[in-house]
Design brief:
alpha+beta; 7-stranded mixed β-sheet; 19% strand; globular
Length: 568
């Protein structure tokens, strides 16, 4: 791909999420189920200090490996070639560290080209100033204090340097980066601190992605990632971790290391872990948008080695899981084959603050709120789902709504003239999104009958009156986020949440060192990205946009810099 091609932003190439279908389908998840080697695998070993008596089935017992085909040595073992692991490996390569990078799948993991940082070159050029302590305490407020401010402070203080290191590598591909400077306005009917954090590489779903670039950089420096290396367990003794054992094409390989970094992601693709640790998330989700390889392997292995994890769930949920009428939130199927029912992993328009009603045809919430707040509110309604309704004036409405984060993608597409039918191509093509010439026909297509249909029609009339008065006297939505439903054609679609990942990982300190049950460092063990915890609790702070990817990159880079003695 040439620089000219890569830099060109077209409606089709920038569409990305809105056009992809069936990423969370049963076939997609089942095809990525982890393999296991029968020979030489004995069940036994200790349980984690985090697993009390009657340990949950999801943790299991640590496997004991008896037939090691080969052993090797390194200074730093990085497990996982995703956002955190690749940042660690690329930084280690730059710093001349001896390291090995292992990934259980056959390719570099997907990333999102949205990245949050503080005091980057882009922000300095735009004269954007961010209050470090206000941001620190806002993140703490989102987490209800169930976090480590040292861990959060490290991202705040080092993410600018991480971006300044990363940007020249991305610039070599000809893929430009822009700083999302949004308007300063209240959101969700109340006041949030909404600093300018998010950087976006243009055409965010066109290759090469940020992870592709880092993988190429590592390979060019002579130490490429080793794929199809599935970690089976960590090597640990007397409270210290000294490497890991991998299931590979040549058998079990043990890599001994002075330091080991767990960067294996969260556990959204593990039904047993999700059911045990994050059941509330499942009760409000209809679709999945996670990497099928994120099955919690690193978290479980670290727990076997004596680590602890965050005690409360922190799922990342977006309000974009479009489904047909009558579909409820929650798993379908049995055992390890359990999946969320939606076949469209993200229908971006679901995040727009259009009128939303429950199965009885009534509004139940201020629709102008963070993604997961919307899903959690719907969790108090029948089936955990809601129906979103809008009309032919949607492009103008979306531009006025002026949402931030990746929901602002809709605003960008409306600004370049993309038709609504094309923007909602995934749901339209599957017949999940209804389109009608009259509100009555729309109600029928959405499955409203009897009293619920009458309530729905009355709700549309009421909402139109609130738009005319520019006052939501039910839930206090901002006037500029009200919209009329009068101009044919009319659109409607049922939604639940989309599960992206989990953020409640291994408890760490400010250097990403993993902690045991006594809050003491486990020698030789680090964690970064979604496999790590101590940063989020209960939710993902959607109005602090790009923090997840920015945190993962910064943490991975921090570990390499710390071990190289560049920082202390």
């Amino acid at each position: 791909m040439t620089k000219e091609t890569n830099a060109r932003m077209s409606r089709r190439s920038f569409l990305g999420l809105g056009a992809l279908v069936a990423a969370g389908s049963a076939a997609g998840l089942a095809g990525c189920a982890p393999k296991s080697r029968e020979a030489g695998l004995a069940v036994g070993g200790g349980s984690s200090s985090a697993a009390s008596a009657g340990a949950a089935d999801w943790l299991g017992v640590e496997p004991q490996i008896t037939d090691i085909a080969r052993t090797e040595e390194t200074d730093l073992l990085i497990i996982g070639a995703g956002t955190a692991g690749l940042a660690a490996a690329a930084s280690a390569a730059d710093l001349g560290l001896d390291f090995v990078l292992c990934e259980k799948s056959g390719t570099v993991q997907e990333t999102r080209e949205y990245w949050g940082g503080v005091d980057t070159g882009y922000q300095r050029a735009a004269q954007v100033e961010i209050d470090h302590f206000k941001l620190l305490n806002e993140l703490t407020r989102y987490a209800s204090g169930k976090c480590s401010q040292d861990v959060i402070k490290m991202w705040i203080e080092e993410s600018g340097e991480a971006m300044d290191w990363l940007e020249p590598l991305m610039a070599e591909t000809g893929k430009p980066c822009v700083l999302e400077v949004h308007s300063d306005h209240p959101t969700g009917g109340t006041d949030y601190y909404v600093p300018v954090l998010q950087h976006i590489w243009v055409t965010p779903y066109a290759p090469p992605t940020r992870n592709d670039v880092l993988a190429t950089h590592i390979e060019q420096l002579g130490n490429p990632a080793r794929f199809n290396h599935e970690m089976v367990r960590l090597v640990h003794d007397d409270g210290a971790v000294t490497g890991a054992i991998f299931d590979t094409d040549e058998g079990y390989v043990q890599i001994n290391a002075k330091n080991t970094l767990i960067a294996t992601g969260g556990y959204p693709a593990n039904p047993a872990m999700m059911s045990a640790l994050s059941p509330q998330a499942l009760s409000v989700c209809t679709a999945s948008s996670f990497a099928p390889t994120n099955t919690g392997d690193g978290i479980r292995a670290a727990l076997w080695a004596g680590a602890t994890k965050d005690p409360e769930a922190a799922p990342m949920i977006f309000d974009r899981g479009s489904v047909a009428p009558g579909v409820d939130c929650g798993y379908v199927g049995e055992g390890d084959g359990r999946i969320l029912p939606g076949t469209i992993f993200q229908e971006n328009i679901g995040s727009q603050p259009f009128m939303k009603v429950n199965r009885h045809g009534r509004r139940f919430v201020n629709e102008s709120m963070p993604y997961d707040f919307m899903c959690n509110a719907a969790g108090q309604q029948p089936g955990g789902v809601w129906c979103q309704v809008f009309d032919a004036n949607a492009p103008e409405d979306i531009l006025r709504f002026d949402t931030i984060g990746c929901s602002g993608f809709a605003k960008q597409m409306m600004a370049v003239g993309m038709p609504i039918d094309e923007f909602c191509e995934a749901s339209m093509a599957q017949g999940i999104m209804a389109k009608a010439d009259t509100i009555e026909e729309l109600a029928d297509a959405l499955g409203f009958v009897g009293d619920d249909k009458e309530a729905f029609l009355a709700q549309v009339d009421r909402y139109n009156a609130q738009f005319d008065a520019q006052a939501d006297d039910d839930f206090g939505k901002e006037p500029y986020r009200l919209s009329a439903i009068r101009q044919a054609p009319f659109y409607g679609c049922w939604f639940g949440g989309t599960l992206l990942t989990t953020l409640d990982g291994l408890r760490i300190n400010g250097h990403c060192q993993v902690l045991d049950a006594e809050d003491e460092v486990i020698p030789g063990l680090y964690a970064a990205g979604d496999a790590s915890g101590s940063f989020f609790s209960g939710n993902y702070p959607e109005y602090l946009v790009g923090v997840a990817c920015g945190r993962s990159t910064t943490q991975g880079r921090h570990v390499a810099r710390y071990l190289a003695g560049e920082i202390s």
